[in-house]
Amino acid sequence: xxxxxxxxxAGTKIQCLTSAGSSLKDGKSVFIDRCNLxxxxxxxxxxxxxxxxEKHAVVLDLPAKLCISRSVxxxxxxxxxxxxxxxxxxxxxxxxxxxxxxxxxFT
Length: 107
What we know:
Layout (H helix, E strand, L loop, with lengths): L12 H13 L13 H8 L17 H10 L12 H10 L12
Helix pairs in contact: 3-4
InterPro entries: P-loop_NTPase
Organism: Forsythia ovata
Protein name: Transcription factor bHLH
């Protein structure tokens, strides 16, 4: 949602939270697509909609080589994560990776 929340340009976390919260209040389903979301960042999104809203996590635990290969080859990425610097960023993200747990509030 972040890259579409601001008319195709990178938006902010606050914009994402506000839009997602409004959509949930309108009875819509919301999908938050975040890469390497740690528990602290995730907590803000899990609070949206309160306990009556089901929250699911989808984890794509892909091999590091595949992630790096894809990121290095791409162009036009909204966060400019492409080319030579992509491998360093992907490796840093993989080192900080935290898998979601049911106790965090997922259904």
